[in-house]
Specification:
It contains nine helices and twelve strands. It is α/β, with parallel strands linked by helices and 231 residues long. The protein has two domains: 123 residues, 3-Layer(aba) Sandwich (Rossmann fold), CATH 3.40.50.2300; 99 residues, Arc Repressor Mutant, subunit A (Orthogonal Bundle). Helix 6 crosses helix 8.
Length: 231
């Protein structure tokens, strides 16, 4: 049973979403303010309790807003985060992605879509397919799919789930151009839609973490996609 942390101050919405999620075999823990949600996430990752497989996080929260919670989480926790944003508020979506969110969903959200998005995230982060477990090495980059670790220039990178997925897909296709549609489907688990900048945002953060050589390592091929250099 996937263990989900739902952080939202709308009590009625939480009850409705929790009921639907539990009918889909999720275990759901609810927090109605940002500070409590952050404490629960940290406790699960430090004590002998089951870690959360994913976190659903609203932007507008009492005590501590969703962006502040996400910022604190990403200091030490790589648990996938799906942000709930105001419908049509592109700024919230962009900021969330820039800060390390894995996906977003506008409110009011359809419980069925929330389940589908969450399951897609879990498929990406918990894949057990044997063919994906071989270590991938290219230049100074090493990808370890079994542990979902990425090492560059002998240093382990601190990546979000989506950043790791993108890097793994590119590494598997080293020297080849991978279009955004393929990256979105294979790394983010969703079809690319018009004006969707998720790929660009995640790759921008990934390049920052790779450092000075990132533009040469991950090359943008205008009009076609992205390519991981073999050199």
């Amino acid at each position: 049973m996937p263990n989900l942390l739902l952080i939202d101050d709308d009590i009625e919405l939480c009850e409705m979403l929790a009921e639907y999620l539990e009918s889909e075999n999720f275990t759901v823990t609810i927090a109605h303010d940002g500070l409590t949600g952050l404490k629960l996430a940290r406790t699960a990752n430090t004590e002998k309790t089951k870690d959360y497989d994913a976190i659903v996080l609203d932007v507008m929260l009492p005590e501590m807003d969703g962006f502040s919670v996400l910022r604190e989480l990403r200091q030490s926790i790589a648990t996938p985060v799906l942000m709930l944003t105001a419908k049509g508020d592109d700024i919230d979506r962009i900021v969330g992605l820039e800060m390390g969110a894995d996906d977003y969903l506008p409110k009011p959200c359809n419980p069925r879509e929330l389940v589908a998005r969450t399951k897609a995230i879990l498929r990406r982060t918990q894949s057990e397919a044997p063919q994906t477990l071989e270590v991938i090495k290219t230049g100074e980059l090493e990808i370890q799919p079994s542990s979902r670790k990425a090492i560059y220039q002998s240093v382990q990178l601190s990546l979000t789930s989506s950043e790791y997925n993108l890097l793994e897909v590119l590494a598997k296709n080293t020297g080849k151009v991978v279009d955004k549609e393929t990256l979105s489907e294979q790394a983010l688990g969703k079809k690319l839609t018009d004006y969707d900048r998720s790929i660009d945002m995640h790759l921008s953060k990934l390049r920052q973490k790779l450092g000075d050589d990132s533009q040469q390592l991950i090359q943008t091929v205008r009009g076609r996609g992205y390519q991981l250099s073999a050199g």
